[in-house]
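Quick check before the chapter quiz. The format below is the same one you will see on the exam, so make sure you can read both the input and the output lines.
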Amino acid sequence: MSPFAMATLPSSRICHLRQLPNHILPIRCSSDASSPSVVSTRSKASHFDLKTYWTSLTVQINQKLDEAIPVQFPPVIYEAMRYSALAKGAKRAPPVMCISACELFGGSRLAAFPTACALEMVHAASLIHDDLPCMDDSPSRRGQPSNHTIYGDDMAILAGDALFPLGFRHIVSHTPSDLVPEPYLLRVIAEIARSVGSTGMAAGQFLDLEGGPNAVGFIQEKKFGEMGECSAVCGGLLAGAEDDEIERLRRYGRAVGVLYSLADDILEERLKTEGGNDGKNKSKSYVKIYGVEKAVEVAEELRAKAKEELDGFVKYGERVLPLYSFVDYAIDRSFSVGDAIV
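Here is the expected output.
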């Protein structure tokens, strides 16, 4: 895939905003943002009970994941796989977004669960590898020891290596054929492969290791935007969304993925400033390079862009509300997802 693809629009439709250093994503002016239907839908989204929705879905996802990764031979690899994929405190954002996008177009939750689980496996594998001493060198993840800290570098590498193909296999072997046609599944598999490959998340990790400060925007888009983009797109593909709708989901998911990471860095920096958190000291985070104030400005632009993309889905009524709610939650963090799961 070519470097991060941007939407191409006539220049008259582009907002002339003050240029930010290493701006992450372009923000377009929406001609529909003030329409009555959009205003009404956004208002409903602000009152949507995201906590209950997310918690209920996560309980189901955790059960499906537990069934998808049984301990087999050699047991130590499976135990390491389960340690990360079933970790307590995991937000399950990729699978929840996938299911929400599938349901937006009238798809069945049962059709989305296998892909949702696969996305969480892929996500867990990427975190296992990112935490390794030769990569980001993070001794902890979600308040618990990182996989390599418990199982060693060798088993952590093998666990990540095993989770990637297991995810693809799970999609093929567990997606109901009467709910999802085979061509849809092929597009889903291709989308996930693109996302994690050498021009996707791997490229982001490479630049996180080798790139200079000016690479931070690309790193954010590839390491974090790709997962959000892939999750939203896969949900739409499973439900047979039209190509223009898939591209709208792609831009939405990419913006939300970067927004979540950026908001995490802002919260971490503020907590550290207040003396409440040592943080992971990400040397190439947007906050570290450009400061909290600039990062907040970019975060608000990303929020606006994500919602603008969703405005094109108001015709689907209340089915779009969860996707709207994810955007505000990324910044506001009105509840803790991990703590909400029993």
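If your answer matched, good. The first strand starts at residue 140 and ends at 141.
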